[in-house]
Amino acid sequence: MADTKREIERKYESDDGGLPDLTRVPGVATVLDRGIAHLDATYHDTADERLAASSVTLRRRTGGSDAGWHLKFPVAPGVRDEIHAPLSDTLPDELAALVRSRVRDRELLPVVRLRSDRDVRHLVDADGRLLAEVSADTVHAERLTGTGGTARWTEIEVELADDGDPAFLDKVEKRLRKAGVRPSASTSKLARALADTAPDKTPAAATAPATAPEAAPRQKRRSRTIGKPVTAGDHVLAYVRAQRDALVELDPAVRQDIPDSVHRMRVATRRLRSTFRSFRTVLDREATDPVGADLKWLAAELGLDRDQEVLAERLRSSLAGLPDALVAGPVGDRLTTWAEARHTGAHGHLTGILDSRRYLTLLDALDALLADPPLRKKARATPDKVLTKAVRKDLDKLTGLVTRALDLPPGTDRDVALHEARKKTKRTRYAAETATPALGRPANGLVKAMKSLQGLLGDHQDSVMARQTLRELAAVAHAAGESAFTHGVLHGREERRAELAEAALPEAWTSLTKDLRPWTT
């Protein structure tokens, strides 16, 4: 079983390579000498270094107190999540799954071996509590691919103790700088090893592929601008690339069942699909429609888990708000059993989806589309008119759907119409998000307006789904000889919530239309 911990550390280098005196760092009562550890780590990656391109490291290390397999994902500068698995001869399946969205079907190979002599010191406070671990590492790097270059260097590493205050690292750094120590130019040992052992001595980051490597472009497509977006096509592709990256980066979090990861991944799929549909004058739908179909499939699969998660939280909250006198029977226990059983089944199914050929092929298709984008003529135009026209088109359709829904009497037809309006609200929001870097304040204002409307319509739709679930749970309770009274009470409250949302919609829509005037005139 793998364990995960948050690693907060900083790396330094100096001309002499030794550790300066750290006894005068504020808060440090004692510096304990923990001796020298001999570490031997082999880093694995694909032949085209896909993990390194994403600043992800995968290694098998012996020696020290944490021998085993280590997988590290970047969180922020100097912050990584490290997943540790016991030492074994082959890569554990659990870790292999966590890098699958990046490596796909490529083979993981030993690429670099690092042997380090680590001189360790512990900085402790007056109570003997560990504040940080400081080490001076003498590193020998050997490239295991290509020409097999080697390199040597020394570095100082300061790692914050678990649950430590990150501000303490500033105090240590101040002392190190006074002693002539400077921050390392490399973000990790692996990054430096790849750079220093490369045949041409060129840093790996300069030649490495993108976060999710894109396929080599075919020659028939028109070239696109690389760098700061300039044309309409540049802006749309920048948004598509950001969502592709989100899919790849959220994959490990979904597999680990990290809260909100499924929701965020589902949003990325919806943003991609909406972008393809909203900007058909920019990207050729002949190429994007098949990708969009697979994105729709993936969003539906992600929804099996996400929708249940939202419903369970809503029902728990409603139940907790009831007076004890209105709670009859084991309603809470039955709700918990239902939620856990549904979640376990949904998560297991979802993990299988992320391992499926269709999903991995979808990621490859997104890479290929970005590497060789199917740009139409308007993609080369300046963004103002092209993006504005696309956003207005979505907004016009939304206006029609909201108007139709408000004209319908309460009931199933209105519920369906409001749900359709909610989906179009999301699409309009995502189109405005795409346009915001080019159009600025008007587009950003539209994003905020759509988020507000989305919240109101979302609460209504959640009420519709909650009532359906309550009817199902009431039937199960009745069949088991239990009282269904409380389910009825909750059902009534959900009906009232839906009524309030519907009553608030006309005024909310009137208010929003005032903010939408730049887009409707």
Describe the structure.
54% of the residues lie in helices and 18% in strands. With 521 residues, the chain is α+β, with helices and mostly antiparallel strands. An 8-stranded antiparallel β-barrel has the order 1-5-4-3-2-6-7-8. Helix 9 packs across helix 14. The longest helix has 39 residues, at 441-479. The chain is globular and about 80 Å long. Mean pLDDT is 90; it is low at 202-213 and 215-225.
- Strand portion: 15-25%
| Shape field | globular
User: What's the helix count?
Assistant: 16
Q: Give me the secondary-structure category.
A: alpha+beta
| Secondary-structure element series | EEHEEEHHEEEHEHHHHHHHHHHHH
Gap between N and C termini: 60 Å
Kindly state the number of beta strands.
9
Uncertain segments are 202-213, 215-225
Radius of gyration: 28 Å
What is the percent of helical residues?
A: 40-55%
Instruction: Determine the mean pLDDT.
Output: 90
Main sheet characteristics: 8 strands, antiparallel, barrel
Features of this protein?
eight-stranded antiparallel beta barrel; 521 residues; alpha+beta
